[in-house]
Each structure stands twice: as structure tokens, then as C-alpha cells.
Amino acid sequence: MAPRTLFDKIWDSHVVETLPDKTAILYIDRHLVHEVTSPQAFEGLRLSGRRLRHPDATIAVVDHNVPTSDRTQPIAEAESRNQIETLERNVKEFGVPYFPLLSARQGIVHVVGPEQGISLPGMTIVCGDSHTSTHGAMGALAFGIGTSEVEHVMATQTILQKPAKNMKVVVEGQVGPGVTAKDIMLAIIGHIGTAGGTGHVIEFAGSAIRDLDMAGRMTLCNMSIEAGARAGLVAPDETTFEYVRGRPFAPKGEAFDEAVAYWKTLASDEGAHYDRVVELRAEDITPVLTWGTSPETVIPVTGNVPDPAKETDPARRKQMQRMLDYMGLEAGQKIAGTPVDVVFIGSCTNSRIEDLRAAASIAAGRKVAPGVRAMIVPGSGIVKAQAEEEGLDKVFLEAGFEWREAGCSMCLGMNPDRLTPGQRCASTSNRNFEGRQGPGGRTHLLSPAMAAAAAVTGCLTDVRELI
Amino acid sequence: MDKFTVLTGIAAALPEENIDTDKIIPARFLKTTKRSGLGVNAFDSMRYRADGSENPDFVLNQEPYRKAQILITFDNLGCGSSREHAPWALLDFGIRCVIAPSFADIFHNNCFKNGILPIVLPRPVCEQLMADARMGGNARLTIDLPRQVVIRPDGSEVPFEVDPLRKKLLLEGLDDIGQTLQHEKAIETFETERAQAQPWIPRIVLD
């Protein structure tokens, strides 16, 4: 057999049937469901009298809509409440396992899946959410789907898809101090652009990737979609197996050993073909952030905002100017020192315990700058409990951060956590689109450590000055 | 899903790259449990000013483009969030065809699932079609899916590619769950074989 990539192997092992036009009926191992993209799918099943084929391969959580403040109070926004109650009715009717709002296991779907051992290497995983790519860190083929496809998976446990192209992003070397997985990924997106991965699955490789812990790999794969890729992947290795061992829904005992033996066969073969290879040197990557309203507008924190006058394409020049106007920035200005109003540390990109530790190491012994609102939103109830056990909550609270309940929070402006027009936010989330964090809100994407640095200095800051 | 065969309608030009699905329909409008009714908030931040009044500079607020059925943009249309609310919002507004030099994968897929035809054409061709669109009410484009051509106001034709299976589903207005369930035997066989080969794959059962 010709050498195959990790993607090829997972793909091949899940093809139920290939249709005459090369579309595969692809088997799905795990279907993650949340309240926003599922109601119309459940309704579709009901209207057509279809059953949900495998409730025992499905898990539901509430995350997008939920308030991250006091959970003992009823949900104030009627539409949010309705969406959550609709999910609760649906999971009951169709027998879907569900972590309700008050469960310790509740959290952001892409934090909960790996944390519970529900997402495992070699699997196919889908969810009606583009950041499903996160689970690629496990060495699983994981991608976001629309609601029609959610219904398709519910009814058939399969999806119709043509194979993606293979792309490899190699980062060799060792990153310097203050440089995290978030900086690596933003640097990659800045390099290849938001459409750089379109039609491809990106496999991340190289020593700088292998050196990352699972949280870092999840950050990387999470933002593959921001590079336009269908999915991101990291080959499962000892770091992966140790992470999976003992998780609540992971195989146990002999079954675990059997699983590991299989997972070890998944790494790409020597000489496997990639349609595109991109290489970066870890030493060249510095702490970075975005200046504009597209995740590809990445500059080093030591850099300057670009000047549209230097852009030759007129449509692009206009768009750059529009971004500057929206962001309230001047062409050519130094980005460091720009004052921020809000700091958001959370989201499926950066809300795991490792992210909170990184933020806490900067926050410790310092104070949130006057006039800045700084929020910490753990990715799940489990992350929150772990952080409290380690005393991180106290570090944050003493520094003047808010310590909140798990949810998507200010990543997407669907719940009460939103920016007001004109507010500037240093955010560990994944998208800086216009209005993403609230109408008129201005988002700078950066790492948890950089976000904490912004909180304590009151402006966008090179975290290396605080290490 | 409505069939898509031959569409003749007004086209609107939106000459921007990377129009994301947050822009097509912001998250605060995703709280619906229905597919319909999102058209009024399509492109909300571009269409309305802060006080809620219409932004007269935005193309879809201008005549004849209020009735546009075809939308032409630049690269990477529909990037970002997987929300199918984006094609639902376009459809509810009246858009049945989107033309761009490239699309984000999930949005491209979601369009087909809702009877919207996404057409990929090189940027210079999109620029020509945008010029046609700017000629106003007399400048209708015809999208002939059976023949796979866009017919311009001057009668010239631009051919386009479309996946044969997706074309068939659009022409017949079929959803693909029924199609897939015709292969249910194969799915069952796959499940049985895998349960034997990889018995360690856990089932999700809550206590």
C-alpha cells in the first residue's frame, strides 16, 4: 500500500461506501450537540418521523447561550432560555446523553469532549460548530458542520463528503520565552491567510508541535478553521495517550492498551504525499496579536499597524482602511501601548487549565489596571474546580479579575457577556470579526499570557517585559 | 427544499473579500429555533445604522437590489462560523445564488443543503458580473443550472462547474438524508465489522 497520511488513514477507516462521483458516506464516531445549531435538526427528525440512530455516540451540552454569572438564577434572556429548554426537551425525547447547566461537567463543547475522554484518537468527530477542529489535537478527524448535516448525522450516523487535500504545517525548533501555542497558530494564519487552508486538512508537525502539551495542540487545531482548513490534526503520541488515560469515557485496562496499540499505527507514513507543505521556524515566532477584523491581520506585539497606502490592490486597500476605522487605529502606529477596556480570557481556544495557569503566572502579585474590566471564564466546570484547587481563583480575584462560570461567554456575543460599541478588548478567543464580541466591539486576538499582561498594564503589552 | 433550475433575477455586487458568516448574520440573531425569519437581519451591521435606520449606502438597501436574488462577492465568501443561519438568512432575504472566486468550505456546503447555488468563477469574471449588476434593474443575470452557464445581460454566456451529485439534488429539490438511508444496509455492515475489529470503542452512557 502507498504511504498514507494520518488524515488518509482515519478517512479510509471510516468510509462506509463511495458513491459514483467519489463522495464518501463517512462514518461518524462522535456527534457533539449544543443548543444553537441543533433545534432545527431535531425538528427535522420529528417532522420526518426519523429516529436518532446512535444516542450512545452523541453528547449534548449548553454553552453558547448560557450566562457565566450566578447559575442559581433563572436565565434572564427569554430567547436564550427558550433555546436551552428546547435542547433539554429534545435530549429527553431522543435519549441523548446531556450535561445540564448545573452539572460540574458542563462547559464549552470543545473543552468537554477531550476532558471527558469522549473525543479519542483515530475517531471521526463532528459538531454543528466550526471550532470542532479543536478535537484534531487528539489525532481525530474533527470538523464543523451545518444544521442540515447535524440532522443527517443524527439520522444516519454518517456524513456525505469528498476527501480533503493534505497539507502539512511544520514548525521546527524551540520557541522563545513568552511564545505560546496561540502565537504559533496566529503566526501560521498570518503566514498562509484565512483561506490558506481551504479544501485541506492541516497536519501540524515538527519539534515545536510535538513539544506542546494537549491544551496547546487544541489551541492550534481549534484555529485551523481560521486558516480556512476543514480540520487540523496532530499525530497521537505518548503525550496524547497519557492525556487520555483515566478520562471518564476513555477505554480502561486492557481495552486501553488495545486502543493505544491501534492509535500508534495512525501517524503519517514516511514518504506520504502532502498537496502542500508550509514550514516555519519556531525561533522566528514572537508574541503576536491581531490589529484588524480578520484573524490573518497578525503582527508582532513589537510591530506597527500596517499602512493601507502601501497596498496596491484597491479593494484590499479599501478593506484595510475600513478595518483601521472600525478598530480605531492609525496607519503606522505602534500597536503596543494601545489602551484596552476589556480583557477576556476564555473560549474554546484558550480556557483550559494550562491557559489559566499561564494567565495567573502574569497576574500573580499584580493588579488589573484602573478602568479595565478583566474576565476569566473557565472552559468547563471541571477546569474551574481544578483551578480553584490550585488557588488560581484567588490569584485572579486578588488581582481584580472576575472569576466566572463556564461557557462560550464573550467569544461570540450570544449571551450577556458582550462588548459595548467602541470598547477595545484583548481577547484569547478565535475571531476578531466586526461585531463578533458585541456590536461595535474591537477585538485583538492574543495568548492568555498576553491578555493577562494587557489586563495589568491597561494596554496591549509585550508579555516578555513582565516575565 | 425548493428546486433550483433556471433563475433569472437581479444581482447585487458586494465587492469584498472574506465576508464572514458573522457579517451575514450576527450571533445575537441565532437564538431562533426555526429556519425562517432571518432575512430581516441579513448583513445587519452593514444594512442598519446604530439607531436602527437603514444605511442608504448599502447595496441591498438600494433599488432594485432590495429584490436581489443573486449576490456577487470577492474571495473566501462565508468564512468563519459554521452557522447554517447564514444561508437561511440569505434565502429568507431572497438570495438563491451566490457567486465568488472562492468560498469557505462549510458555507459552500451549507448553501447546497438549502437550495442556494454557490458558483465559483475567477475574480476577473466576478468583476465583469459586478459591472453587469451595477447597471441596475435592466441588468438581470440568468443562472441556467441544467446547462451550467451564467447568461449576462448582453446574452453572452459564462460556463461554471458544479458537482454532479449536488446538481442533481438541487435540480430535484431533494434532501440527502433519504438518499443516504438507501445505503442503510452498508452502514449496518460497517457498524458490525467495526464493533468486532475495535471492541474498545466506548459507548457514551451516563449513569
TrEMBL record, chain A:
Cofactor dependence: [4Fe-4S] cluster
EC code: 4.2.1.33
Domain of life: Bacteria
Keyword hit for Iron-sulfur: yes
Domain Aconitase/3-isopropylmalate dehydratase large subunit alpha/beta/alpha: 8-458
Positions of [4Fe-4S] cluster binding: 348, 408, 411
Sorted UniProt keywords: 4Fe-4S, Amino-acid biosynthesis, Branched-chain amino acid biosynthesis, Iron, Iron-sulfur, Leucine biosynthesis, Lyase, Metal-binding
GO molecular function: 3-isopropylmalate dehydratase activity; 4 iron, 4 sulfur cluster binding; metal ion binding
Class of enzymatic activity (EC top level): lyase
GO BP annotations, alphabetical order: L-leucine biosynthetic process
Catalyses which reaction(s): (2R,3S)-3-isopropylmalate = (2S)-2-isopropylmalate
UniProt entry tagged with the keyword Cytoplasm: no
Cofactor note: Binds 1 [4Fe-4S] cluster per subunit.
Pathway: Amino-acid biosynthesis; L-leucine biosynthesis; L-leucine from 3-methyl-2-oxobutanoate: step 2/4
NCBIfam families: leuC, PRK05478.1, PRK12466.1
Its job: Catalyzes the isomerization between 2-isopropylmalate and 3-isopropylmalate, via the formation of 2-isopropylmaleate.
PANTHER family linked to this entry: 3-ISOPROPYLMALATE DEHYDRATASE, HOMOACONITASE, MITOCHONDRIAL-RELATED
Subunit and partners: Heterodimer of LeuC and LeuD.
Family: Belongs to the aconitase/IPM isomerase family. LeuC type 1 subfamily.
Name of the featured protein: 3-isopropylmalate dehydratase large subunit
Lineage of origin: Bacteria, Pseudomonadati, Pseudomonadota, Alphaproteobacteria, Acetobacterales
Gene that encodes the chain: leuC
Automatic annotation (TrEMBL), chain B:
GO cellular component, one term: 3-isopropylmalate dehydratase complex
Catalytic activity reported: (2R,3S)-3-isopropylmalate = (2S)-2-isopropylmalate
Alphabetized Gene3D superfamilies for the sequence: Aconitase, domain 4 (3.20.19.10)
InterPro entries: 3-IsopropMal_deHydase_ssu (IPR004431), Aconitase/3IPM_dehydase_swvl (IPR015928), AconitaseA/IPMdHydase_ssu_swvl (IPR000573), IPMI_Swivel (IPR033940), LeuD (IPR050075)
A Pfam family annotated for this UniProt entry: Aconitase_C
Keywords, ordered alphabetically: Amino-acid biosynthesis, Branched-chain amino acid biosynthesis, Leucine biosynthesis, Lyase
Database matches in SUPFAM superfamilies: LeuD/IlvD-like
Residues in Aconitase A/isopropylmalate dehydratase small subunit swivel domain copies: 1-123
Enzyme class label: lyase
Keyword Lyase on entry: yes
GO MF terms, alphabetically ordered: 3-isopropylmalate dehydratase activity
The keyword ATP-binding appears for this protein: no
Enzyme Commission number(s) of this protein: 4.2.1.33
Pathway where it operates: Amino-acid biosynthesis; L-leucine biosynthesis; L-leucine from 3-methyl-2-oxobutanoate: step 2/4
A single GO BP: L-leucine biosynthetic process
HAMAP family (UniProt xref): LeuD_type1 (MF_01031)
Family as reported in the entry's similarity comment: Belongs to the LeuD family. LeuD type 1 subfamily.
Subunit structure: Heterodimer of LeuC and LeuD.
Function text: Catalyzes the isomerization between 2-isopropylmalate and 3-isopropylmalate, via the formation of 2-isopropylmaleate.
Name this protein carries in UniProt: 3-isopropylmalate dehydratase small subunit
Species annotation: Komagataeibacter melaceti
Gene that encodes the chain: leuD
